Each structure stands twice: as structure tokens, then as C-alpha cells.
Amino acid sequence: MTIPDAGSASATAASLYDLAPCGLITTAPDGTLTHVNDTFLAWTGYTADAVIGRRFLSLLDGGGKLFHETRYLPSLRLRGEVREIALNIVAADGTVLPALLNSTAEIDEHGSQVAVHSALFDTTERQDYERQLLAARRSAEASALRLRALQNASAAFGAARDDSELAAAIAASAADAFSAARVAVTLTDDAGGFERAAGDGPVAALASLIDDAETELAAGEVLIVQRAEAPADVAAELERTRVETATVVGLVDGGTAIGMLSCFHARVRDVDAVQIELHQALARQASQALIRIRLQKELEAIAHFDPLTGLANRNVLRSHIADVMRRGGAAQQPMALVFLDLDGFKAINDEVDHSAGDDVLRAVADRLRASVRRADVVGRYGGDEFIVVCENTDETAAAAVAERIRVALTEPLASPLLPHGLTASIGAAVHLPSDPPQLVAIDVFRIADRAMYHSKRSGKDRVTVLTV
């Protein structure tokens, strides 16, 4: 076993001090630096001559100096040591270096502090790591908020039964997701124009900007409007309505905007990439819900209405006749079913063409609507047969309705191919309720059909009324 001599041990200690993996410094009781190791000098860029004799306090930034005087020194005097104090060292080139400081006071036999020995650890990587952790946590929180907002929106959108309910759900979901002071939802109407469907806010003030960004909005992009950067007229209106930041995102179907979601904030908002993505995701969900609702509406129209004339179809008529008879029986009120068949309609299709026939059927539908009360239901039973269901209508009123229809149909048509008017054979069945009921809907229909055929056999262009 070899025992090192004193000189060798001293050299080893000096080497360990200078090459320690942290900065080591010693200060006098007044804070003057008396020793520093090579690691500290290499880290800070100072030379030994530049720091020996300086107060350690002079190497700290402003906040570090304040903390050193008010917290570090009192704790060191009280306990004789300080652990893991975060301070910033100002390097020779002015760079601020984050450090973690551990200090121990050296006390002599009289209890007096003769020196302070400190170790400083470079926490640059630790701060980077903490920043990464913080960024990851914020990202996770943002993802959780985004997921929750979209889940809530999905549930609300799925429960909506029509445009109005959906627009209200979109407005509520956006207000919650973006903490917006006001939200406005505009949807396209049947004519293709936009009209406000829910919420409030100065949407009109953004009209020119929305028009300019029409292509981008239809592509799913988000329009961000900061009042301070907006054109003068837009900025003035936003200021008047106390809006600092506004966002607009389109509800899109196949590259065509079918609605707009506009959010308004009373304070300046930095709309970052995460917020933009949430705007777009919410808009996609809203678009899908709106497309679904409108498709359902179209399917219901197909199921309940004749596609050529827009009148109620056979299934709706049958159900409505039964409902009217049931209500009439309960209230002891008569009802009438008017059944008409166009005279000579087949010749129009054969001698002109089917498109002319379609024009005639549409014209008949319009004249029927104009000839009856708003509460009466007009339907196309099939081909050139039409039905009008009149609630609370006696024999006299039914005859008057049928005659009014007959006269209306004889007026000349607008088509140059069909300059003459039409005639129709019309039959009306008036049902008087009884207790118990003697007839059902199909019975009344058959009686009206029999009355119509009586008119046709009697020379056409006339009305026959039967009461049952």
C-alpha cells in the first residue's frame, strides 16, 4: 500500500477543487470573493483576476441582488447554511446564467463567521427541461380542453332537431370553448343568402372582410380581426360595440359556405395555432350536424310531399283525413273531402309533351292553394288527381269551395302551348260525425271518388256533393 506524501495530497485536493463539476467559490464575511475554481471561471467567462476581490453580489442580476440581500444573507446568518437557492449570475459577456446555490458558513472557535463556501450548479438544462415539461403540460391541458369542448359540442349538436336548435347549440358551445363575450351564428336560407340564426354581435361590421375572405373561409380557414389592425370603418364599428378581437370560421359543405360562426372578445386575444385548430374542429362538427339536419329535412319532404308540386302526398293525405275525422267526431263538426280529376290531361302529355304536363300540374297546385283556406290541406293523390281536406266544413261550404276551384282552373294558362284553361270533374264528400262513428277515412275517400266520377259521367267540368 502506497501512502501519498503531503505534497501529493495537496495537489490532488487542488485538482479536485478546480475540476469539480460545479462552480466552487469562497467569500469573506463581507461577501468578497477570495477563491474561485476553474469550473466557475470557465462557466462565467471571467478570469480569476477579474473576480477575486469583488463582492459576489456584483455578479448577480437585479432580482438576484435583491434576493441575496433580503433572503439569502439573513438565512445564512441564522442557520449557517443555505440550500438550493435559485439565482442568476451575470457572465463576463453579459449573458444571464441560471444557477442553484448551496452555501455553508465557516465558523471559528469563537463563533464568528470567517468564510462562506458555496457551490453553484448550472441549471440551464434544468430550466430547459422544466420549460419543456411546462409546455408539455400546457399542451396536454389544451388537448384535454379541446377534447372536452368537442365532446360537449358533439352531444349538443347531435340533440338538435332543426336549424334553429343547432344554431343555438353552436353559439353556446363556441362561447364556452373560446370564452367569447358574444357569439353569432348565421346560416344560409332557402334563397342562398345568410341570415342570423342565433347569438348576437356586430357581424355586419365584418361584412366587407368576410366578402374578401370568402374563398379562404370556404376552404376552412379562420378569419382573425384585431381592431387595432382593421380598416378604419371596421375598427370604428368594433370600437363602438366594444370588440377588440373577432374571429370568423365558415361552416362548409363541399367547398361552399353554408353558415358562419363569429366570436367577439372585449379584450385583445392572441389566437394561436391551438385556438385556430379548435375553431376549425368545432366548425367541422357544426357543418356535419347542419348537413345532417338539412338532409333529414329533405328526406322528410320527399317522404311527405309530392316532389313535382310540393303538395302533400298520398300517405300524408290518408293520415290527415283520419285526424280531421277524429277531431270532428270529438267536436261534433262536419268535414269535407274534395276530390278532383283533370279533364283531358292525357291529351296534353300525348299531343304536347310531358314537360308541358308537368307545368300544368304545378299550375293546378298553385290555383288550388289560392282557392282554399290556409287551414285546408291540399294534396296530389296521384297522376292528375288532387284532394283538398277541409275541416269544420258543411255541405254548403264544401260546394262553395269546390265551385271556386272549378272556376279557378278554367282561367287561361300562361304557357303559349296551352292557351286555353283546364276543366276538372270534382266530387265532394261531406261527413257528418256520429256516435259511434259509422265511417272511417277510406269510406269518405271512396264516396268523394264516387261523386267525382258522377261529375265526369255527367259531362265533366262540374261539381257533385254527397253528404254521409
TrEMBL record:
Domain PAS per the UniProt entry, residue ranges: 9-57
Span of domain GGDEF: 333-468
SMART domains according to UniProt: GAF, GGDEF, PAS
Domain PAC: 83-135
Gene3D superfamilies (UniProt xref): 3.30.450.40, 3.30.70.270, PAS domain (3.30.450.20)
InterPro entries the record matches: Biofilm_reg_signaling (IPR052155), GAF (IPR003018), GAF-like_dom_sf (IPR029016), GGDEF_dom (IPR000160), Nucleotide_cyclase (IPR029787), PAS (IPR000014), PAS-assoc_C (IPR000700), PAS-like_dom_sf (IPR035965)
Xref: PANTHER family: BIOFILM ARCHITECTURE MAINTENANCE PROTEIN MBAA (PTHR44757:SF2), DIGUANYLATE CYCLASE DGCP (PTHR44757)
Protein name, as recorded: Diguanylate cyclase
The species this protein was found in: Leifsonia poae
